[in-house]
Task: structure prediction
Amino acid sequence: MIIPALEYYLVLGAALFIIGLLGVLVRRNLLIVFMSIELILLGANVTFVGFAVALDNMLGQAFVIFSLTVAAAEAAVGLAIIVALSRHRDTLNVDEINTLKG
Amino acid sequence: MTSETLLTLIFAYFALASVVFAVLVIMLRNPVQCALSLVGVVFHLAGIFILLRAEFLAAAHIIIYAGAIIVLFLFTMMLLNIGAVERVRQFHVQAPLAIVIGAILFLEFIVLTGATITIGAQGPHSPAWVAGQGGNVQALGQVLFRDYLLPFEVASVLLTAAVVGAIVLARQRPRRPRSSSEMGVSEWMAERYEKANVRSSNRPNSAEEIGD
Amino acid sequence: MADVAWLIPLLPFVAFAINGVFGRKYLKKHTGLVANAGVLGALVVSVALFITQLDHAEPQSVTLWTWAVSGDFALDIALRVDALTLVMLLVVTSVSFMVHVYSIGYMDHDPGFWRFFTYLPLFVFAMIMLVMANNLLVLFVFWEAVGLCSYLLIGFWFDRQSASAAAVKAFLTNRIGDVGFLIGLLLAWYVFGTLDYDEIFVQAPAVAAVTPGMLTIICLLLFVGAMGKSAQFPLHVWLPDAMEGPTPVSALIHAATMVTAGVYMVARFNPLYVLSANAMAVVAIVGAFTALFAATIGLAQNDIKRVLAYSTVSQLGLMFMALGVGAFTAAIFHLATHAFFKGLLFLGSGSVIHGTNEEQDMQRMGGLFGKMPVTGSTYIIGGLALSGIIPLAGFWSKDELLGATLLAGGMGYLLYALGALASFLTAIYTFRMIILTFFGKTRMETERFSHVHESPRVMTIPLIVLAVGAAIAGFVGVPPEHGLIHDYLHDTFLAAELAGLVHKPSTAFVLGVMAVSTLIALVGILIAYSVFMRKSPAPETVAGRAGPLHTLLVNKYFLDDFYDTVLAGGTRGVGWLFAWFDLNIVDGIVNLIGLVVSEVGGGLRRMQTGRLENYAFSVVLGTALVLAFYIIMVR
Result:
């Protein structure tokens, strides 16, 4: 039993996901890009829990635990990269980090 | 006012508030304010989770996100001393286009949500079963430590790896001179330039030279 | 005893390996001793093997290892020990050893001393493996290996333009023959399903009964290989140029051993050849023609080594002529005696060149006998043997060979006439050479003439040994048709006898042929004597009197020029055409493709900004498009 209907939760998850996505696409500050990635993960979490409750299956909630693990690991490694990068490049501006250019 | 309406109103509040905070995260100029908005998102999502009777996850989100991850962000900002607003453009040139595409994607999600979701079979963990286990926390514990023990342990390995990786990456290393094969030509020249006379103050920005 | 056969190739190979690895830095002059020890070892084992096999030389083979197995086709590396192999081994190892000893003196001052004594044992190893091979592929491998050694040694003084050109010429000319050989080998494998000698020989009569044409083709293709290796017309052009190599090399490789590989190979495949009368006829005709052809050119050459080179071509022609009429024993007999006296003549000429400080032109020699008595007298013995004067080695073998052609009847009379004429010319050019070199008044400058000296003992002793060999080696074939070598090789060439190719001559016939041969040789010598000795004219006067004929001979019938103009020039023209096509058409297409790709890539490169958010945007855009497609098209 889920109130309100599952669709509301899915739309909420989608909204957070899209907002996170937009953050990744539009922001130039690497820290905020990482925060946006956290938003994406949160959107996914909402969807997971919503389905878990709607379907009476605890797997969805268990999966969020793993999602949290990934989020924590990602934050730790990502921030370490930021620290190393800022030491090396003196900038957190993603525009200036373009060594992938062929 | 039925409890259903009340619950819907509560959902509307938490949902709206979390979306607003999320928008603030990507809109605000100051990274510290962004981080605090992210805390707002997490708190309101915790409310959503409680609404869904997922009390443990609500608590876990607050503890892990607000208590750990966002604090980590703030620590990083403090460490790098970038709390102050940078007087540079905050948004990409591609921002308007990205917003349009994002909006289209969002609409597509809504269309797909409204029409095509095929709900699978009901799982075994009904509210009655959860209650029989003694609540959400006990139920989740049963699932996690009985059915998914191995993935859980693997997740701990992932965390360990992340810790090691973070330490290795962020460790302050003495700048050893790299061999020329490891760096690009302009980088190498910049380094020669640096060695030759000027110390870091007005050396040419190597990144600029490689770019465009 | 055949168990130790593997020692024979191994010892020279070890010498080669030691000299090749340590020669340059550590052994230096001692490489000569190492090489000599290795070859001497091979000689000793060969002699020992020969003695134990003297009574019963039935074919034996020692399988060393199996090289490759494919289905029911197995390729063994095996050493064959039979009468023919043993005769060849004795010739190869003994002449090789003499040449090795001689080379210590001859190459003494050469900076490439260690290199020389690395190549030479390698050649000996390859040659031994060639004669000991028990199947066609191993034969081919070492056939190529001796060709490689020949190339390396002709071009030994590679800083000389002419030497490296001669080496390339030898290599390329041999390639033509080798292609024939290789095709013949593949055809043999196709027809017989095996490359093993004995298995081929067993199957040969059955194949000849079914497809005689195929057998003829195989025989002819193998003979093309022999023509290349043994310098038969029209592939003979490389051998005279090969004289650019050091003289010991000319003696060993280009007179005594490697060039006889073709003769050996045809003799080895005698069970095949006797089944194809046409192939035999071709062998005989090519041989006889080459014998006469080369002898005429030899008349007009002024370079002492080139005279010998054409003489070698001529003598090899005689051997092939004998093979072609089924006188296999006579051919191998002549091969063996020729190895001794031609090796002797080459080493003698080397001694002359050494003593006169690198003079090779006979027009600037003369009167050297007094200065170099040992070289001169051994040289005369070699010359007499080559001319066929009783009782020296060349007489017995050449006489038997000519007699055999006469006995063959039919075409044999013509062959005999050609062979006899070639022998006549041989006597003339041999003594022209001897007289121009050693007798008469010297044509050298007094200053240089006074410096002429006899070679050191390390060179003259091999000359004496070989002179003894050239004098007495013929007696293994005495009495004619019933000598030691005939009994010994009887079983090997049984096929010829069974095919009715061996005729028993009467004593009167044998004596008659001997008398004619001797007469021919004596007349030839007398002519040479009267023209070049008694009147003692300058060689140019004789040349002038001969007129256009002389021009033709000096220019070797213009065959080299013909090859150069028609074959090489034509090839160059075709090459030019192809080059033009390649540069303009093919490269044009390639460049066009390249241009298109690079332009398209240049356009696409602008998308590669190197900024992750651009890439992420493309991902999002792609996702949106896929979902839109799904919503519109699928739902």
